[in-house]
Each structure stands twice: as C-alpha cells, then as structure tokens.
Amino acid sequence: MDDATTRRIGGNESSFRRVNETLRAGKTLADASKRFPFRCECGVLGCNRLVELTLPEYEAVRSNPKRFFLIDGHEITETEHVVERRERYTVVEKEDAGAEVAIDTDPRA
Ligand SMILES: [Zn+2]
Questions:
Q1: 33, 19, 16: which is closest to 68 by C-alpha?
Q2: Whole-angstrom Cα distance, residue 30 to residue 24?
Q3: pTM of this structure
C-alpha cells in the first residue's frame, strides 16, 4: 500500500473521529455503563455503520491519538494493527504515514 493510499485512509478515519467528537461533546457522564452510538471509525469506503460504546470506553480509545475503534473485520491491516478485540468493537492503532495523519489531525491535541 503506497503512502498516498495510507494517508487517504487515515484522513477518512480522522474525519469520522471528528464526527464522533461532536457526538461526544453533547454527552455527560451520568451513567458509566450507558452505551451511545458512534460512527465506525474505519477506512472502509462507504461504511456508515454505528458502534455502541460507553463514555469510559470511548475516552480510553481517544486518549491515544493513533487509535480508532471500528466494527470487527473493518480493520485494514496494511495500515493499522488490532490492539484490542471487544464484544462490540475492535480497537486499532495506525502505523507509519497513517499514524502521522492521525496525530496531525488529533482533535484533542
Ligand atoms: Zn466501518
């Protein structure tokens, strides 16, 4: 996979992360076990699936700018590796050029 493709995929994932940060902003942590729907943060073209996470689960992923959550099987292993598989979602960490894009576009930086 070339650098341009890796960066494009990273850009897609980063834009879903921005959408999710907007969704997150409207929620307060009243009940840590309550699940909220977020956009799947994968780089698969045309994916518009939702993933349910609690706010602590969401925050755990967001605390690392190179990490994204997605539906199991939506990982693109040429540019990211799986760090955690959960019942409802999978966490990936970006590599190389994709990691650079992820860090450059971190909404919490
Ligand atoms: Zn997806």
A1: 16
A2: 13
A3: 0.94
